[in-house]
Amino acid sequence: MMEIKSKKLVTLDEYIIQAQNRFPGATGELSQLLRDIGLAAKIISREVNKAGITNILGVDGSTNVHGESVKRLDLFADEQLISALDRSLITCMVISEENDGIVRLNSEGGKYIVYLDPLDGSSNIDVNVSIGSIFSIYMRQPRFDTTLVEEDSLQPGKRQVAAGYVLYGSSTIMCYTTGMGVSAFTLDPSIGEFILSDDDFKIPTHGTIYSINEGSYNSWSTGLKKYIKYCQEEDPDTGRPYSARYIGSMVADIHRTLVKGGIFIYPASKRYPDGKLRLMYECNPLSFIIEQAGGMAIDGSQRIMEIKPDAIHQRVPIYVGSPENVKMAKSFLEKFEEQPV
Ligand code: AHM
Ligand code: MG
After folding, report:
1. Residue 250 in contact with ligand 1 by CB distance below 6 A
2. What is the pLDDT of residues 285-322, one digit of tens each?
3. Which CATH number covers residue 38?
4. Which residues are CB-neighbours of 331 under 8 A, at least 6 positions away?
5. Nearest by Cα to 323 from 298, 341, 301
6. For the chain, how many structural domains are there in total?
7. Which residues 6+ apart lie within 8 Å of 211 measured at CB?
8. CATH number for the domain harbouring residue 297
9. Cβ(276) to ligand 1 under 6 A?
10. Which of 142, 160, 198, 284 is most deeply packed, by most CB within 10 A?
11. Are 39 and 141 contained in the same domain?
């Protein structure tokens, strides 16, 4: 008789339910929330893949709350994610890069608050380069007054209960963490399911890639300039000179850093004195993922996830990646701290 050897494929939904079953008291609400995001991601992935052949591609003529031009796909992704979260009545409030203020959902009593960057790296859409969605989930903190206000969402990144990203690249990949390591799934478009590809993703402790927009070199701090020069010097023992790689989509740059190791930097500069990237829906969730994979994420001196936010759209400089690379960058910043830009 023919022996059938088949590898057990685990779908995202199965994996989430198995993980939930390991916690007897779990209500299943966080699991539902993650599945909702997974479903929205599949719909967004489908649209991203056909962007070039439909009129969804291109600027829709409006600008987002930061004055940046908005592509139609940004709006589509925003709507899909928000309506998926709204349907299951678990989330009370969403904060998204595409919306100026907080978005109150129908379930005012829902216990989760979700931050979204619905389509990060959107300037890469019309050149067919990878883009991504980012999410970050918090519990609503109990308060005497039950009216939802913006302050309810201003929690430090270390309070995230889950975070993740979806990368729309040569394949669509979803990575998330609930604080117990990082799980990665690859979308199989033929069956429309995310399939588990790694349930304990780890970042190399040291990598030989640095990733930064070097066009801003002249406005960096002395410490950062010296660190990048260090990356470019020759030293075979440490794998230098390192390779430079910069996609310009944070999700894609972070995913490469997770897989291959190295460092991704978006620093403070004269143009962006507080850095360009957003603390709550770009830096915190991706820092949570990187830390859970064994990496580090700092703003130059302190851990990103310790920062107490004071605005939902606030920016922060970020140095993130393999622990040895981030520690080395930090030592350069500390050594040359006193020197002017
Ligand atoms: P976006 O949210 O408007 O797409 O901007 C964020 C993106 C990040 O994905 C990326 O790391 C960064 O902007 C690139 O900025 P720059 O072009 O200044 O290097
Ligand atoms: Mg973004």
Report:
1. yes
2. 999 999 999 999 999 999 999 999 999 999 999 999 99
3. 3.30.540.10
4. none
5. 298
6. 2
7. 244, 245, 246, 247, 253, 256, 257, 262, 263, 264, 265
8. 3.40.190.80
9. yes
10. 284
11. yes
pLDDT higher than 80, residue 262: yes
At residue 79, the 3 state secondary structure works out as helix
* Confidence band of 59 (pLDDT split at 50, 70, 90): low
4 occurs within a structural domain: no
Tokens of 291: 């830390």
Instruction: Let me know whether 155 and 50 are in one domain.
Output: yes
* 3-state SS assignment for residue 108: coil
Range of the domain at 113: 12-198
The tokens of 74 are what? Answer: 């940004």
Residue 188 lies in a domain: yes
**Does some domain include residue 2?**
no
Summarised one tens digit per residue, pLDDT across range 202-232 is: 999 999 999 999 999 999 999 999 999 999 9
Question: Which residue's C-alpha comes closest to atom 16 of ligand 1?
Answer: 248
* Atom 5, ligand 1: residue with shortest CA distance: 121
265 lines ligand 1 (CB under 6 A): no
State whether 145 and 239 are in the same domain: no
Question: For a pLDDT cut of 70, what percent of the chain falls above it?
Answer: 90
Q: From the CB of 121, is ligand 1 less than 6 Å away? A: yes
